[in-house]
Amino acid sequence: MTSTATQPAAVHAPALRPQRRPWRRIVLHGIVLLGGIAMVYPLLWMVASAFKPESDIFSDPGLLPATFTTENFTQGWDALGIPFSTFFLNSFVIAAISVLGNLLSCSLAAYAFARLDFRFKKTLFAAMLATLMLPFHVTLVPQYILFQSIDWTNTYFPLVVPKFLAVDAFFIFLMVQFMRGLPRTLDDAATVDGCGPFGVFWRIILPLMRPALAVAAIFTFIWTWNDFLGPLLYISDRELYTAPIALNAFLDSTGASSWGPMFAMSILSILPLFLVFLFAQKHLINGIATTGLK
Amino acid sequence: MLNPLNPNPPLSRRSFLGTAAAGALLTTAGCAGFGGGGSGSESDGDASLTVTWWGDASRTELYDAALALFEADHEGVTTRSEFADLGPYLERMATAAAAGNLADVLWMRDTHVGRYGAGGSLLDLSEYLDDVIDVSAIGDAGIASGTVGDGVFALPTHYVGQALITAEDVLGAAGVSGGDIATWDDLAAAAREAADPSAGVFGINDPTLDDTHRHLEAWIRQAGGELFTPEGTLAADPAAIEEWFVFWKTLRDEGVLPPADSQSEANGAGWSGDFLVLGTSAMRLSSTNHFTIVSGLTEAPLGLFSTPALADATDDWWFFPPILISAAANTDSPEVAAALIDFFINDAAAADVTRLNQGAPSSSEIRDGLTPDLEGAETAFIEQISREMEQPARPFPIRPEGSEQFNGALTRIGEEIAYGGATVSEAVARLVSDAAGYLTAE
Q1: Which SUPFAM superfamilies match (chain B) (predicted)?
Q2: pLDDT > 70: percent of chain A
Q3: Shortest CB distance from A249 goes to which of B56, B87, B96?
């Protein structure tokens, strides 16, 4: 737009706005609202179904239960002979350790790629990115054989130890991008003051990259909390089940699944994710906006 | 990784503590999941077996109780059970088989025994037959259902059959009775009578959109054919497959079947969303054991009948897909594993616990022993299977490798036809030409 074109608009704008704006706003908000309702409907349906008797779930399509019951919750909580709190705790322990591992190892790896000079850096960076593109299923069997040969099946080690070895290339990439945006003069100043590479990392880089760390922490938590295949393969003791595996125990695709209790427990199991997202939303958006990921 | 300006950076106390704390948390977390893994078996008659099946927590409760009986009978033997729903179960089995770490005793799909048996993952049970595993009550047909090449890699614990389930009140309102349906033409006529599109009532559920296609296999066997050759290639006459899809397409076009999208949606919802359960369909084709599930979900009167036959059907078309049990080739205690297989096939006390949860017990003795205790739907189910088993049945070729893929392809072309994406002849021609690629002779 040229300045001559904008000027008359600017002059007329105060007079026009009060008339045009409400309409556009209402329409736009309406569209967004409809989109939002469409997105949230399955979730609302699940919440409604959790409070319906089993027989009403598929025959009564309304979102307001005709008969309200909390039986699904009480029944689901103890359905496996072990209270569901055990599974939540298990999931939480794995997720918490994974978050710690990923933050520590990925930030260190990212620091090396972003700031240090070493041989084959570019090749290794490319290899790291290549692992990002490798489908999970390709490495599934070799990985299983590896963990089985050191007797780690039916423990949480296969689920958390890799997180301390910087295997989540996505986060490394994200952090490298973020670090590249930090001014190098800060590193130099710290080096002049006597910091070694680790000192620079610990005292300068790490405190500055909080938004990237927040994104990595939140995503790690969500992904580990929701992970199904990993625990399915490695965990066989019922006491060690994570929440998704326990939810699967309500399903019987060759017979009749217990939908009610499953929905009830599903609601409980998405609560932590919901809370994490609710409280960390600011950091998440901040982090994504500053790491160049769009 | 050295900074050229400062080759020997001192490790600060804080950073050291931070790393050490992380390591400590990982190694000493007071959580059960970080103990030693694996479960080896001990010598001197002591054995520890892992047993796995597909299903949900309620099945597991029954089978755990049966395992406890086995442990009580066999001193020194401990068992541990694992379970998952069928899909994840098969995924885990594939990974564990590749790593040679299958559970000692595991339930096996008839669709997978060919692959795992030929692949060397399963224990050949031949040498344990008669000595350890009593096969007198399951007969040669039972042994044949787990025989791959020269080895017996699985034995049936249960059978399921194919059936017609009817909503008697819906049918009755149209003046039809399920008992009068003997042929596919009878079925079509009854469905047309019962369908009332204006009231939202369908004549019969659409079986071509289901995820298994055993009624199609019945249709083919009734016509004198087989789905697969003993060598593992496609045996079915494409014309017979076409006739099957045309039969259902005609009913769909007349509005007797549910529209494709409603049917797909109902299939996704599972049993509680089934049109028969909801009272909006007069009939459905099913596995025989589904009768007990449907009966538990609706108050309406239901009928259970044999699968309709072609007017000129062969009389030995009957077949019963087996629910199989296998032992892993990697087990440390093959003798005990074989004993456990015998226990699940022949033990009356175990059958008293597990009842009909997986189907009709393969052993005729166990079936007869259970019958007096059953009631309602369970009786109808087991009586129908027992009655049908007395019919002549020619051998039922074992599912070859690739049969799962073929099954999936059937569902896919069923959808294409139902949604109008392809004509029957196009879709079947493609099915047959594709199958030539993955159903290959050994």
Answers
A1: Periplasmic binding protein-like II
A2: 90
A3: B56
